[in-house]
Every structure is written in C-alpha cells, then in structure tokens.
Amino acid sequence: MPLSSVQASSPARLRLPEWASPAFLVGGVVVLFWLVATLFPTWLAPYDPLKLAGRRLQAPNASYLLGTDALGRDVLSRTIHGAQHSLPIALLVVVSAVVIGSAAGAISGYRGGIIGAAIMRLVDITLSFPPILLAMAVAASLGPGLGNAAIAMVVVWWPVYARLMRAQVLEVREREHVEAAVAAGAGHFRILTKHILPLCWTPILISATMDLGQVILLAASLSFIGLGATPPTPEWGAMISDGATFFYSWWIAFGPGMAILTAVLGFNFIGDGLRDYFDPRSSK
Fold first, then answer.
1. Which run of H or E residues covers position 223?
2. Apex CA 118: angle with CA 112 and CA 123, to 5°?
3. Distance between CA 93 and CA 153 in Å, rounded?
4. What are phi and psi of 74, to 5 degrees?
5. CATH number for the domain running over 22-31+70-283
6. From CA 73, how far away is CA 56, in angstroms rounded?
7. What DSSP character marks residue 281?
8. What is the pLDDT of residues 6-55, one digit of tens each?
9. Cis ω on the peptide bond leading into residue 159 (within 30° of 0)?
10. Are 158 and 101 in contact (CB under 8 A)?
11. What stretches of 110-151 adopt beta strand conformation (E)?
C-alpha cells in the first residue's frame, strides 16, 4: 500500500499550539468559572449570601460544603457571590490604569521635553513608595468602600504602565516607517496613533492580564484591614478578616482564600500563555 494512502487513512489528531500549555488551559478554565460566578452567581450559590442559612459556625458538611460563618451565613454562597465584587473591581482598576498610564507614557515618550520629564518625575515619585503602603494611605484618606479602594489602586498602578509605554514608544519611534511618515508630512497625532501605538500594545496586554490577579490580591488586602468592602458585603478579603476573628473555625477563611489563590493563578497562567504566543523566544 502506498505511503500516501496510509497517511490518508490515519486519523487526524488535534494538536494544540505550543503556547497553549496545560497551565494556560487550566488558567482559562479557572478564570471562566469565576466569570460565570460573577455573571450568574445564583446558578452556583445554594443560599442567599446575606441571610441566615443555618446554625452559626457549623463545620463543612453535606448541607453546607464550606460551613457557616459567625452569623450562620453559608460560606460557599458568600464566596461565590464575592466574585461579583473582586473581579469587576480588578477589571476596572486595570483598564483605568492602562488608559491613564498608556496615555501619559505615550506623551512622555513621543514629545519628550519638559512635559515628558515632568510626567516621568511624577511616575518616579509614585513608584518610590511601596504599593501597599501608598494604596493604604490613599484609601484611608478617602474612607472605606470598594469605590475608594479602586481609586487608591489606580493611583498605585498607572505609573507602571506609563513607564512601560514610554519605553515602547521610544523604541518604535526610531523605526524607518515612522521616519517615512514624518518625511511624508503626517501630523503628530496620526504618527502616534497610526504608526507607533499599534506596535506598543503587546507588553501592555501581557502585563495587564497578569496584573488582574495582583489587583484582586491588593483589593482583598485593603478589605482585610478595613479599607475596602464594608459589612455585610461578601468580599473575599473581608471574609478572610472575619475568619481571622474565629481562628479555630478555619472554614470561614478557607473558601475566600482558595478563591483568591485560584483567581490569581488563573490570570497568571493566562498571562504566561499570551507572553509565549506573542514572543515565542520567552518560552525557550
């Protein structure tokens, strides 16, 4: 039998691209689960997160898979509903930081001069403070609440994207196609938006994907110390704070703790896969 007919008769095998590693697929499944929990929490939560579900401080059992808290509320239901607060605030903070930081970095890198220097000195001043301490100071001055915590995190995060975008713009603006656009008489706005910025977004996208997990962690930290979500909001950091009060009832903090862990790892795995896709050399 000819070799070609043997090859034709052999079943086709589905091959995933090299960048779609098992870790990337696991991260995608985890993030998809939390997205479903964010959009349709009542599908997954067996009880109302704010109402009494049973006796207080019940250990995990068949009726309450993650037990109940000090007020008799179902920990599993509160953990699932907590995604409605943690994921949207992470997305809002990262998008806001990307928009503000990228605009500032693009102006600084393209225009330079006094304006560029002033922007970068502001970036340097902001980055000189530890992120958690700066976020705590801003959130404390604004008062508790998820909205104020989001503002505090944007203040912390935008300089990272400003510095990253500036470095990309400084590199791309020296390329030949940009020089050709300048020689053709294109305006500054067109050069920046059509010839420079489209080539600068890959590192921003990868960094933003990984930062989603870090923002979730920082938001939980602010809520843990009382500068984020306020009771009775089922937010992951606030739930862990409640669990710390009842140390031997470990299940109160176990659910939100695992939620934070899986969400952060999921976004990090996806970010690694995107990095390998856009820059295959990074995986070697």
1. helix 201-224
2. 105
3. 7
4. -70, 120
5. 1.10.3720.10
6. 7
7. G
8. 444 444 444 556 556 787 888 999 999 999 999 999 999 999 999 988 89
9. no
10. yes
11. none
Q: How far apart are CA 218 and CA 228, in angstroms?
A: 10
- What does the alpha-carbon distance between residue 239 and residue 221 come to, in Å, rounded to a whole number? 11
Which residues sit opposite 74 in a β-bridge?
Answer: 68
**Pair 234, 49: CB distance under 8 Å:** yes
Q: Which among 69, 85, 89 has a CA at the least distance from the CA of 254? A: 69
CA 8, CA 91: separation in Å to the nearest integer?
48
> Which letter does DSSP use for residue 58 in this model?
P
Selection from 91, 84, 89, 85 nearest residue 37 by Cα? 84
Residue ranges of domains in the chain: 22-31+70-283
Supply 13's token pair: 């095998």
Amino acid at 217: L
The predicted-structure confidence for 72-112, as pLDDT tens digits, reads as follows: 999 999 999 999 999 999 999 999 999 999 999 999 998 88
| C-alpha to C-alpha distance for 132 and 128, rounded to whole angstroms | 12
SS3 74: strand
Per the CB < 8 A criterion, the answer to whether 61 and 67 are in contact is: yes
At residue 148's C-alpha, the angle toward residues 28 and 88, to 5°, is: 20
- Whole-structure pTM value: 0.86
Q: Please report, as a single letter, which amino acid is at residue 63.
A: S
Helix H or strand E encompassing 139: helix 131-142
E strands in 117-204:
none
Tell me if residue 227 falls in helix, strand or coil: coil
